[in-house]
User: Fold this.
Amino acid sequence: MARKTAYCKLNGLEMSLIVLFLLMTVVSVGLITVLSLKLDSEKQVTPEEPSPSVSPPENPYLIGVGRADCTGPVADLPMMGYANTEQTARGLHTRLFSRAFIVDDGSKRVVFITADIGMISQRLRLEVLQELKAKYGDLYRQDNVVMSGTHTHAGVGGYFQYTLFMITSKGYIKPSIQAIVSGIVKSIDIAHRNLRPGRIFINKGQLVDSNLNRSPHSYMNNPEEERNRYEFTTDKQIVIMKFTDLDGDGIGLLSWFAVHPVSMNNTNRMVSSDNLGYASYAFEQEKNIGFLPGEGPFVAGFSSSNLGDSSPNIRGPVCVNTGEKCDYLNSSCPIGGKKACIAFGPGEDMFESTRIIGENMSKKAKELYSSAKQELHGPVYGAHQWVNMTDETVPLNSTHTGQTCKPALGHSFAAGTTDGGGEFNFIQGDTDGDPFWDGIRDAILGPPSNETTACHQPKPILFSTGEMDLPLPWHPAIVDVQIITIGSLAIVAVPGEFTTMSGRRIREAVKKELEVKESFANAEVVVAGLCNIYTHYITTYEEYQIQRYEGGSTIYGPHTLSAYIQRYRGLARAIAHETIGDLPKGPEPPFFNEDKLFNQVKDPVADVAQNGTTFGDVLQQVDPVYKVGEIASVTFVAGNPRQSGDIRDKTFVTVERFHNDTNSWEIVHTDASWETRFHWIKGRPGQSQSKVEWHIPLTAQTGTYRIQHFGHYKQLTDNTATPYVGTSDAFKVTKSFYYY
Ligand SMILES: [Zn+2]
Assistant:
């Protein structure tokens, strides 16, 4: 059968790496030793068209926006997303930013953060809230601060406290989590400092050419009458918030669209903010004229939403070796199995696909931004609870109830998706399991209990993570549920990846509860994805029955969505009836001592400059002349980028243009620029090179340029990080080789 013919080649999908971990353990250490192995602003804004509504409101909101670099280490750490420990970072394409939006109604305040990272983890949220408390007392709290990750798969991991995520990230890695915590807090600091009276408008529209359902078989198992209410199998709606000051000058944009940031695939090794990050980048570059990327006062956040089954790879899946259609249920191919069934984006390569999907979102948001007329008025609310998701009861009908389960992952989880397949012979749509893997699992980790097995039916359990506690629990039990509202807009902060239909159901349920209050009569409800804590996927009950990847990854069992809907309805009801104060806080989540968390990423070894060179020397020089559209490339003797420590607000790369009149070099690009690529090439121990590419845009001015590379090295004799600079020869950029 096809499923037995799949190969094992490295690279995997979200979390399927865990399977690799298992096999390695079996081979090298033996069945019993696995656990011991693990134990060990500035105001200067482009003028806007004044918004076409009436005069400013009597009690305007106070609005603050802020953006801060949250890029962590760009070398050696596993990237967070495809769950492949072999896919470690080796450089930087675009920087990662946290974007903060604060809205105050005069007495209450809410904060929305969207950060260019894989997801918010419970550990990350708790550490951010600790820092906010130390700085601001009770101003920014668990109930009024929402943190959402864009779900880029090209940031690094290392910011989790539960064992499963620590395994795929190679541990809890201080420099990684610290960069994100500091970046998020700084973005709030900036927004806090520039709070000013302003106005907020919302608008929505359709973007039809930028996402595709990657599990149509699951989607089609939803009731027909429900499906008939929707034209598409993914949400095409894009909702935007437009923030202006009282003069109508734009200060920010916040937007939600449901698409996976997996345009950059699992062969990429450069840190990147992927398609949602590109949308922010493009929007901000247009608004912050004359500023380098990541600088300037206008902040444009593109947040994740119910992207669970929504792929940006809109050419769809195909068997790459034969060109045939993949199997509909299993997404596998007659030859090559599921590894051969890959979906591709609209572009020629992953970079172009990232740009196209990002540009589509940015352009649509711009159109909606410029035509936004519906103004938000009225109070803001924040409602939050902690819920023990392993112990929720939901009524199914008048006589029966359903129960959530201790977390567990199914066999299909290890299969991955058509955006990046997992390892071994796991396939999607598996409701039978596989005795071979079950045997290995039982020997190493123990079998799931009968109770958990029954609870998760029809999911064949691969990892009963809720029953695994060594060295620390493998998955969370206590989960955040949260809604914030601004006027008639409700932001439903969900703790994972809701599928299209799950998102529709929860939006509708929340809207119904809110609408009992007149001010919410026309409530707009958006789902913000990957918020506050990561709990994988949330499918509908019907989708769960098919057990494709998303169903196999719905960790609290078939009634997970119903339990969430019940809880979020409770929050919405409390907001509508102004009884938020009566909501029980729920059980507090654990905050594990740092000495209990493990870290398998060693400090980099001392750097060695290859024979007769020094750090920053050019090994491969630029050409003397390039035409626009070409790639200028230069290679330097380098240190490990991790020696540079906290790299936020710095750059590894500049592209500089020479000005004859002032006899000086002007920086035209940094490593945050889309046009630059910083590749770190790891050689023999301690020896490394930095290859810097400038993809010269067609719009580049002709003239004389140079490329500089900045880094640090450490030597055996001296453990201090010493800075170095490498500078290329000057070169010319011309529009045509004939007339330069
Ligand atoms: Zn995902």
Notes: The longest strand covers residues 703-715.
